Amino acid sequence: MCSNRRFHGNGLVVSLGIDFGTSGARAIALSSTGQILAQTQQAFDSKSAADPQGWQQVLWQLLADLPQDVRQQLQGIAINGTSATVLLCDRAGNPLTAPLLYNDARGGVGLDELENIAPEGSPALSATSSLAKALWWQRHLPAEPLSQARYLLHQADWLSAQLHSQWGISDYHNALKLGYDVAERRYPDWLLALPIANWLPTVKVPGSKIAPILPEISRRLDLPATCQVYAGTTDSIAAFLASGAQRPGEAVTSLGSTLVLKLLSPCPVNDSATGVYSHRLGDLWLAGGASNSGGAVLKQFFPDSQLSHLSQQIDLSQPCPYDYYPLPQPGERFPVNDPAYAPRLTPRPDSDVAFLYGLLDGIARIEATGYRLLQRLGAPAVQRVYTAGGGAQNWVWQELRSRHLRVPVCPAGATEAAYGTARLAQSGDSLYL
């Protein structure tokens, strides 16, 4: 499935961002003024979502579907992929086994041992982390593929190398859950002492130059031979980069199936007890957490079409009488980190409008509590919140959230992760300096 939309503008195309998500991929080309000039997308079939060869075919198709005059002006390309989706490859970059996807938790069997090695609060201390998956491979793979293993690569790393052929290069956004120390910009000693240390990729600053595209790709796809490939990022960071948030105190809330909060801070904030960790963005830090509350629990009770209709009937002049904590099932990550935390969804009123009011208000209170927690842990007070995700279109919810947050709430400048990755390729590693 392919979609190609063309935008006309006067700016020169300088960058292309490519976003590999869970259901498909999208490419967006930006002019030097930040205008979208073209975009293409490809949906994954049931096999290609977990198949590196399928990813590769989608990559070539995304590039080929761009208008020729856009391809001929490209000066930079960057790719984002799903966080902690990893491949184990040989010296030539050939996958030795199927990738372990972002939500694959089989590495949890060795988590107790990892907790005795990695420092408390490390983002690598998770059953789905890149490091947990690497250690699972090291323990469970047969001897033959294990003896050929040379590079542990994230999805974005492997796809970028298809363009420049320099294997074993990652970025510090993807490498965070591998155990990379983003404050010191090096692998810590405890990680280098592990048996998988020789698999670790070289880590670059996101947006820094890697190499020009390969000559054969330049010829085949009619791309300039001078087009540079830049170190990429993860899908969630790319979505933040698209938002327009630039200063400490500015934040992005993603209202998708779950509720994801990210707040720009001058210092890192990490607290494993409450599910908080920080990514580095140049000289700033992106602190945040993810709640299991969000759109998924709303859809348990109302279809999208009904949500919009019922929302418009909510009387915001009346205070919400319900103290809900909406969760789709027991278990919460942030601002409460408790795998047994119970949903609070009673009493349910007879009126669907009143019930939806309670759900939306409950999620808004979780968001506000999350930002207050980040401030208590050392981040700045939130000053403005940009909103991404499907819930950004609900103005009643937006007004509720603004009341609880007591700061302006506005739609994100752009919501596509590919747009944020194109900005990374356009601005290089100076985006947040």
UniProtKB/TrEMBL annotation:
InterPro entries named among the record's database cross-references: ATPase_NBD (IPR043129), FGGY_C (IPR018485), FGGY_N (IPR018484)
Gene Ontology cellular-component annotations: cytosol
GO biological process, one term: xylulose metabolic process
Pfam families: FGGY_C (PF02782), FGGY_N (PF00370)
Enzyme Commission numbers on file: 2.7.1.47
Reactions mediated catalytically: D-ribulose + ATP = D-ribulose 5-phosphate + ADP + H(+)
Record bears the keyword Translocase: no
GO-annotated molecular function: ATP binding; D-ribulokinase activity; D-xylulokinase activity
UniProt record similarity statement: Belongs to the FGGY kinase family.
Name of the protein in its database record: D-ribulose kinase
